[in-house]
Amino acid sequence: MGIPLLLNIAAYPLLSSLESRDCGPCKEICSTFPCEHTECTDADYLQDKEEELRDCRLHKELWECFNSLKDPASTLKAEMSQETWGQHEIKFARCRCLIEKEETIQREIAEKEDRLLKEWEEFEENQREYWDQQDRWDYLEWLQEEEDRRWCEEQQSYDDELT
Ligand SMILES: [Zn+2]
Fold first, then answer.
1. Ramachandran quadrant class, 27 (left: phi over 0; alpha: psi -120 to 50; beta: rest)
2. Angle between helices 82-89 and 56-68 (to 10 degrees)
3. Near ion ligand 1, which residues have CB within 5 Å?
4. Which tens digits make up the pLDDT trace of 63-116?
């Protein structure tokens, strides 16, 4: 892997925003994007997702145009202004790449989901252990208090006997 994952957050202002991210059970958001929690770090995939967030209607139209290429009977291109078609056409190469990489991308997404799920499970397990530990401490503290109280009472009765 030649490209470091420390990419610019400004390149994906919507995807990297707090609302779009889930960095695991600790509820802290990593300072970089994409981060280890990003479902897929493929640049084409991220760009496509960013555009979908920015304007889902336009994004849908792009894929409709791209998919219409497979259908020789499609009239979509003819129905559209040259300008609109042209603005989608410059992204067809990326669409083609995404189709070619689809399997790899889906695998990465599935792996990330598994990892995030494990992170949650570990977090819950740790929470449980923490509270078990707290319960034991509470009990020990109570025992100590009881002992102190008894000792005080004994002292008191001893003092009483003396006077
Ligand atoms: Zn993260």
1. left
2. 90
3. 23, 30, 35, 37
4. 999 999 999 999 999 999 999 999 999 999 999 999 999 999 999 999 999 988
pTM: 0.71
* DSSP letter for each residue of the chain: --S-S---GGGSTTTTSGGG----TT-PPPSSSS-TTSS---HHHHHHHHHHHH-HHHHHHHHHHHHHTT-TT--HHHHS-HHHHHHHHTTHHHHHHHHHTHHHHHHHHHHHHHHHHHHHHHHHHHHHHHHHHHHHHHHHHHHHHHHHHHHHHHHHHHHHHH-
Cα 57 to ligand 1 centroid, rounded to whole Å: 28
CA of 27 to the centre of ligand 1 (A): 9
Say how many Å lie between the CA of residue 21 and the centre of ligand 1: 8
